[in-house]
Amino acid sequence: MPWDRNQMAExxxxxxxxxxxxxxxxxxxxLVANYxxxxxxxxxxxxxxxxxxxxxxxxxxxDPDLINAGKQTITELRRTSYFSSADSFGMIRGGHxxxxxxxxxxxxxxxxxxxWMIPGKMVKGMxxxxxxxxGVKRVVVVMDHTSKNGDPKLLHECSLPLTGQGVVDxxxxxxxxxxxxxxxxxxxxxxxxxxxxxxxxxxxxxFEVAV
Amino acid sequence: MPWDRNQMAExxxxxxxxxxxxxxxxxxxxLVANYxxxxxxxxxxxxxxxxxxxxxxxxxxxDPDLINAGKQTITELRRTSYFSSADSFGMIRGGHxxxxxxxxxxxxxxxxxxxWMIPGKMVKGMxxxxxxxxGVKRVVVVMDHTSKNGDPKLLHECSLPLTGQGVVDxxxxxxxxxxxxxxxxxxxxxxxxxxxxxxxxxxxxxFEVAV
Amino acid sequence: MKKIYPDARAALDGLCFDGMTVMSGGFGxxxxxxxxxxxxxxxxxxxLTVISNNAGVDDFGxxxxxxxxxxxxxxxSYVGENKEFERQYLSNELELEFNPQxxxxxxxxxxxxxxxxxxxKTGVGTMIxxxxxxxxxxxxTYIMETGLIADLSIVKAWKGDEQGNLxxxxxxxxxxxMMATAGKVTVAEVEEIVPLGSLDPDCIHTPGIFVQRMIxxxxxxxxxxxxxxxxxxx
Amino acid sequence: MKKIYPDARAALDGLCFDGMTVMSGGFGxxxxxxxxxxxxxxxxxxxLTVISNNAGVDDFGxxxxxxxxxxxxxxxSYVGENKEFERQYLSNELELEFNPQxxxxxxxxxxxxxxxxxxxKTGVGTMIxxxxxxxxxxxxTYIMETGLIADLSIVKAWKGDEQGNLxxxxxxxxxxxMMATAGKVTVAEVEEIVPLGSLDPDCIHTPGIFVQRMIxxxxxxxxxxxxxxxxxxx
Lengths: 211, 211, 234, 234
Hints:
The complex is a heterotetramer, with two copies of chain A (211 residues) and two copies of chain C (234 residues).
Chain A: H1 5-13, E1 21-24, H2 28-31, E2 43-46, E3 50-53, E4 76-82, H3 85-93, E5 99-102, E6 106-108, E7 113-114, H4 129-135, E8 138-142, E9 154-155, E10 170-172, E11 176-181, E12 184-190, H5 196-201, E13 208-209
Chain C: H1 8-12, E1 21-24, H2 34-43, E2 48-51, H3 63-67, E3 71-76, H4 83-90, E4 95-98, H5 101-112, E5 117-120, E6 134-137, E7 140-146, E8 150-160, E9 166-167, H6 176-182, E10 183-193, E11 213-216
Parallel strand pairs in C: 1-2, 1-8, 2-3, 3-4, 8-10, 10-11
Antiparallel strand pairs in C: 5-7, 6-7, 8-9
Helix pairs in contact in C: 5-6
């Protein structure tokens, strides 16, 4: 049985280590915060200028001056610090964030990532995604294995405009987990009852099997 | 009678305007602060990270965490802000300081400035001088007209390593005041009882007389 | 030199002209200079190039200037919240230059700090890199990005004093401090004008040297995504 | 992840090696990491490249590392206060690279912010520009300067909490914040370790992400130029 959104988030949470500074993208990556182990201390960064992001506020705590990069109202913690966008992206670009977990439209077997634009349709913009994938030490993508039409999203080459070239280190889909390095892509885990053949049937990218 | 140090500082203070942000160098330029008109509001910047520099402290106010760029103990004002060296020189390099008044060893008729190094002797370093002359909107030099040996310091070309090229807008010496622009150097004021001939006799640089 | 002006209209008087470049602080609707945006609209200045991370929503923030077609070009990282923007862009009434958010922030900082250009690896291998100078450092490829300055920067702070010293609050800081440094003229709106000497000099985010004019504004502070959790035993 | 160490020796344990590059915060003797400099001396690590605006005085600050000949090269803007420095430099025992102070500060910031190089007009037409890439922007000439990073950065702050969040005091801030960002490992010494949550989150100068280890130090805070005025009617 393929993983659902929460199970994918739970799997992604295993990539977190004690003392990590982490940036979580919008969508499934946001759910990862619910699965951070109690035995580890992780600090969440929000690229609009905050380190030490807390949970969503109770109704009476809502503060319009306190939002995350998805423009959602959030809260602060005792460890929180605020800073400018320039300082925030200095932190990101300078390689100080340990891990970024984000969604994707396409990933290539070389680790290229496309997640910001569909030509001909409205382009919303890349926001901080290009900076994150270029600067953060390790990039984990969490996404459905195929598009809504059933088309593969793990490809030889991305067809959409890139967010970054050779930037993805791991992909977690509803079917399993892939690691990507200079030597290529490797399937390292399968969701329960999913077979290698199932994965191959819905994947265009070449990958080594190492489950 | 040529100007003394205090008179040179007093003359330099006339270059200050209401609302100016000003950086004063070490030596005679520091004395300029004593002659700021009561009718104008001027803010002094210290390039080690302070805007709104106050006077020297009384003995019981001395604070080792509060020094100026000459490493002298100073005080703060109600308007004071502190910032990092990077932010301080961003302010300087970005052209936000209206005026810098500083000392010099040599100035050329094209506005080149040498004030940081004598080859073969110990070199102490340029500190923030190169940044100041490159970044500040207007640079006024205050210096003795000749060296201790009587050699001219206003030259066709500087003989010492430059601090900046074409950066000086005005020179105030004990003999008079010179303005420098793309067209060259111009004598615009004389100290009391000093003649144009006196000035010419101790000046190598070519200058137009416009007193 | 009095920096405090009675209202937004007075604070923009004489500063606005057709074809000018304006930087506007804020992230989404958080920390935007609401009052000055409205006053900028009221000046009628048109063919504006606006540098702002986002473009507001249809009826608030920079959306006001889109409604009146005063904007010729936007330089932004994300404009997904604004339908009027989409319409004008798709019908070629509006130019758009996307910058990665960190590149945009750094370009503003660079402009204010006298740095005409810098290198970054953000965007290498993407369409953002097309036509830009590439250079290798330590075996890695980087692209050159240029500093940005504006004819006018409008920013929003929490507190300010008569010298123009500004303090921002929480994530409403965002692009405001860099943009304050990169305007030929910078006008700030604050929630509260405080007596000189009451701001901690170690905690001033924008020293007054960067602020030429200031007003006290009234702030709606609209929230885009009110996201809350429920108390378990309420 | 415990960041607080019992003392300076423990905080440097395992971090120091011959030939390493060290950034050391401070301006003159103001805001220097006194305790960590002494502990670095005690590690005996030699052939150090030290990036610091100044070189201390003969018997204090980085002067301690000059006495023991542990420094191979200094990158500084001004070293005029140190006679032992002069002696070693004139006898070619010590390499020296002068950087304009603002260029040095910006190089540290750039290194920490992932910017491998930037352009500045500081130093154009001087010996500082020799051998550096020149480039024109808008008709003006600029030179390229590169970002700096260090194997170890040692910084001094006023207050810090267990997460490594730091606050500096007055002009003791100077180079410390940028250097904290540019160390592969950054160790901070503070005057006071405060409880988590007691620092104002809007006023944290160095977020804890940049600080890997921290100690409470004892600070002599020597003054170089005690300059005072007299009360007129004391």
